[in-house]
Amino acid sequence: MLRRLIVLCGAWMGFTTVGLSQEGSGVSGPDAILARQASLDLSSITFRSMVDALKAGREAKSQAYPAAALAKWAAALPRMFPPGTGQDETTVSTQALLVIWRDRAGFDRAAANYADATARLTALAAANDTPGFLRQLEEVDQACGSCHARYKKGAQGPPKK
Ligand code: HEC
User: Fold this and answer.
1) Are 147 and 78 in contact (CB under 8 A)?
2) Count of domains in the chain?
3) What's the sign of the alpha-carbon dihedral 116, 110, 66, 128?
4) pLDDT tens-digit profile of 77-116?
5) Could you tell me if residue 47 is inside a domain?
6) Among candidates 70, 60, 107, which has minimal Cα distance to 86?
7) Is 69 in the pocket of ligand 1 (CB under 6 A)?
8) Which of 23, 52, 100, 103 has the fewest C-beta atoms under 10 angstroms from its C-beta?
């Protein structure tokens, strides 16, 4: 079941990235909000599945696919926040604070930091460095949390178990 979720997650993320790369191709602001929220929920599921796998004694190399899926999404994330999709700017429910667009450089840095953290996670999985992978999961978690602390309204970090 978990494996099927991860596969679906990766396939769906690929679809999203393609859709938004065609600028002005008809992906509306509300579409972007729904797509990014689903990707962020899937990120949470993916992240937790890696933690659980390591806790269950799996090696880092078994997590190469979910790590790469997070890295792929991390690279697409900034483009999923087009102008006009912040809280109170649209009828769609969103926790994206307007400070994202007031401090776009800071938001892009937070996203780049997240992309770096997940790229490193992917490299550690490829090297089958299990202790390093475990430490890097913490770094990734911090990259999620530090972006949320400034740019997302409401509860910080992924939902707790
Ligand atoms: C660069 C900033 C940034 C990073 C990095 C980031 N998030 Fe978020 N996240 C946001 C913002 C902004 C929202 C609010 C989006 C919205 O409601 O439109 C959000 C929303 C969410 C949500 C709620 C989605 C929903 O259905 O409303 C979850 C869950 C989540 N993030 C998990 C994560 C996890 C897990 C990570 C790391 C593995 C992560 N995020 C990394 C900025 C970020």
Assistant:
1) no
2) 1
3) positive
4) 999 999 999 999 999 999 999 999 999 999 999 999 999 9
5) yes
6) 107
7) no
8) 23
